[in-house]
Amino acid sequence: NIDITLRRANPDCLEHSVSIGGLPFADTRSNAGATTAPGEGLPCGNMGATVWYEYTAPLSSPPAYNTTSVDTVGSSFNTAVAVYSQGVSPPGILTLVGCKAAGSESLVSFTAAPGWRYYFQIGGQQGAAGPLTVNVSHDTDGDGYTDIQETRLGENPTAPCNIMRADVDGDHAVTILDMTVLANHFLEPVTQTTAR
């Protein structure tokens, strides 16, 4: 009697990274039990318990260089995100593009070159572990904000203070009540004065 158990490869090393097929991309998993490989770079936040993702920027004609962002919004612990590129010369060599360790919402944005492969190393600051959320998105309209940033509760991260959030009542859901309040706010008549 032979018992064979097949297990999915743990993405805690580059060779078993999670392949990202298209954007936007979101993944939630635990990094508990993930390790760092011998010789694995730890570029910021004293990163540990790392998991890896790989993404190849799509080819287009003419070539389109897109701002791509990787973040950990939704994670439950202090995270660190590192982005590496794997160019064509020399082959197989990873180059650090950027690294950020910023609480549970670490974010790295970079310009993705068409056809280039990128690797995302994501882990806990000081080796922290727990439920990890990874989001990857493009800025398809070129306004400086990724598509995921634009859809999160209608909030623009650098908007002036007079912009209203879509989640008016703060219940973390955009409901009919929120939409009614917003519509009434933006439909109020504006009083104009003339300068003398």
How does this structure look, described?
With 196 residues, this protein is mainly beta. It has helices spanning 147-151, 176-187; strands at residues 18-20, 25-30, 48-56, 66-71, 79-86, 94-100, 107-112, 117-124, 131-138. A five-stranded mixed β-sheet has the order 1-3-8-5-6, with no helix packed on it. It has a four-stranded antiparallel β-sheet with strand order 2-9-4-7, with no helix packed on it. The chain starts with 17 loop residues before the first strand and ends in a 9-residue tail after the last helix. The relative contact order is 0.19. Residues 3-9 have low confidence and may be disordered.
What is the element layout, followed by pairings?
Layout: E1 18-20, E2 25-30, E3 48-56, E4 66-71, E5 79-86, E6 94-100, E7 107-112, E8 117-124, E9 131-138, H1 147-151, H2 176-187
Parallel strand pairs: 1-3
Antiparallel strand pairs: 2-9, 3-8, 4-7, 4-9, 5-6, 5-8
| Distance separating the two termini | 95 Å
Largest sheet: 5 strands, mixed
Q: Quickly count the helices.
A: 2
- The outline comes out as globular
Mean pLDDT: 78
Low-confidence stretches: 3-9
Rounded radius of gyration (Å)? 21 Å
If strands are numbered along the chain, what order do they take across the biggest sheet?
A: 1-3-8-5-6
Total beta-strand segments: 9
Helix % is: under 10%
Structural class by helix and strand composition: mainly beta
Portion of residues in beta strands equals: 25-35%
Order of helices and strands: EEEEEEEEEHH
